[in-house]
Description:
The chain is of the alpha+beta class. It is built from 20 helices and 37 strands. A hairpin with an 8-residue loop joins β34 (711-716) and β35.
Amino acid sequence: PHVIHKTGIDVSTGRYYLGNIWSQPHTHGRNSHYDFFAAYGDLEAGGGPFGLRFSGHHLDVNLRWNANGEMIDDMPVFIGHSPLIVPAVHPPLQRKHNERLREDHFYTPLLWANMAGVAQFPEAVDLVLTASNILLEEAPDAFVPLREWESISPFGTLIPSDGRDATDFQGHFDLSTASEDNFEAIWNLVDYTLKFNRGYRSTAPEREVFRSDGKVIWTSKKKQSLPLSEDDIRSTLNFLLVRVETKDNLYVMMTNQMFSIISESEPTNHLHSMYVAKDVMNADNACLDDTSSALCNSAYVPVAGHEERMISNAYKYESKKWEERLIKSNISLDIDAFEAAAQKWSDDFCGLGLTATLYDNNGEQVYQGTHGSKYSPMREEYMMYGPFQDGWDGDTVFPVYSNTKVASAATFIASVVDTNLGYLDEPLRVTFTELEESTVGQITPRMILSHTSGLKTFNRGNLTDPFYACIYDGQTTNGGCVLDQILSDDNLIAPPGNMTIYNNAAFDILAYLVVRKTGIASFGEAFQKYLADPLGMHNTSFDCPNVASTNEKPHLAWGLCSTGHDFAKVVQMLITEGMGPDGTRVLSKYGVRQIFSNGGGKATMRDSVLNRPRNPTGSYLVSRCYPRMDMEKYDGIPFTLPTGPWPDYGLGAMFFLGNQGEIFGHLGALGGVWFVAPGRFSYYLAWAAFNMFKTYQATTDILNAFESASNFTVTSTDGGEEHWEEIPVCGGEMYEDLFEHLGIDSMKKLLDYLDPSTPRSCDEDIGLGERMLWNEAVVDEIPDYMMLL
Length: 789
């Protein structure tokens, strides 16, 4: 259902909202309408088994539940259609944004760079060519002429006519009798599709089935016209379809020039691939004959009347998709409420300094101010901070800790992806050839930035930790420490891409990768060139002595020193989808959307920091809306808690649920939180207070007061009469409201009641002393839930 929601289908009318395919990072249909959608089985409440099927040009998904409402099958039917090949002559990389080499070029260089080509899918190119050569040499009799095939849209590909399968053709290629090399050439296509879709989970069970029961047929324009070289793939003449099937499963790969994207000088090619259980490809799940039914009729059905035009809460809430799904908004921000809430937050924490910067939905700064003046100043010693003192303002330099992650993600994308030097899903082994035979070589930048690398964590507070001891050795290099201490199969506690494990040290792999990809001397220099300088962040640097971070050996997950005024510019860049304050592009729109995408895919959440809180005060609860509530016990008392502090993680960005829409952001250990609510607003709150963890949860009250006082309404833009609707709190029944569950109106009051360990009165001692973060000498003084964080 989530995939279908993103594609923008009006299931009541059958209309497909295509949007702009050049800016959409997700799926689109073959035309302006959906291809096929159906809910089937027993759809009555409390009834029997049922299923859901959507088949489009880019994806095919079938979900099935049993009579108890338990999902029994969520195997995706994957249709790739990812751009595969670009011309042999690449356009120059050094040119201005939107600069055209010819007047008829309609796309941007950044768009071209992110489309993906030979440099970005070298593995796919090799796999197709290897399979093509094997088919022509070893399985020429498995060729089935095109006239023996037919195209039926619900299946998303060519299928043998008259309901036949591979075994109906005498010359089919039997994988059970093929040599190991020939089998591997075909299997690697299947394996690539499976891993591209679901990550690097084991495909051994599928491999065994295809080895024992796989049958292959293939087609092309003629037997000799299939692609045998890169030049063939680039040509406009090649076409290849490979069908591999077992008794229960079907795999299809097709590379062709029928659906092309125009490049600098000639059409590009696409790779289509899909893997599907055969039993979902039948008349029960497909529109084959009954073209008069509402489900199968692709004609546009006009929508009449205001009641019929009501926008669902789900559509209203998912603000990052408003423009793509033909919804426009009317935003009225209550800046006074934001300022008052920020002042109250500072007062509640005895004059703690807070620098607050607010931007509207267009990225215009509408408020900036500092409230209070107290803070924990940095000391020269490693990760040590003095007692509270006055002097905080928006230009006070402090370590932003985990807020660093999004700046590092943006730097990597701007310096490597947007320059066409690499891509987010490129395995490390492509650059670090010494890892070619290792499992860690399968790790990708996307996995690192989303904490799904599978690598174990390292302890930054323990100076004898192997990795950090290496990093802090003056005789070593960042690259040497990364290769020697992190990138080892012995450090894997889960296969890459399979499990979410919050991991700071893994980010440092990208520092070395950027140096190798760009030729720039250090990641710190790349950060200055691609992010800090274009944004005018003059007081921000990876040279941050307090956390022993340098330009040459930066801590990409937590080592940036910045200010309240400086780091706010990163947040402004994100709300404007990559634009700098002077109107120049700093990061591609694609890059921003990747930061706000589900980086972990289907990886299992293992780490408590990304899963569920131990008690109401032991987690970063910074919103009132959550996916689900569970009853837990806190000090023996039943208590309603969210199932997790946030529902997902992107690339250096946490996902939160705001009152009237999704929010992306992150928190930092010493202080600071950034929020981006696409289409609505963004803000950065900066402070520096060691060991005052309730400061984070209390920012919930700033968000709640601001969103409650502001006004957010939306209407459809599909050509009918405008009908403005409000967005209900937590999307109505879409998400759970923690405040409503507990009958509270303030997170701060709840925290004070549940956790009296910090002063109730500002007359009490709030000086936290000269402590080092995670110093073992004070472990006994820190509650367990703080150690969790």
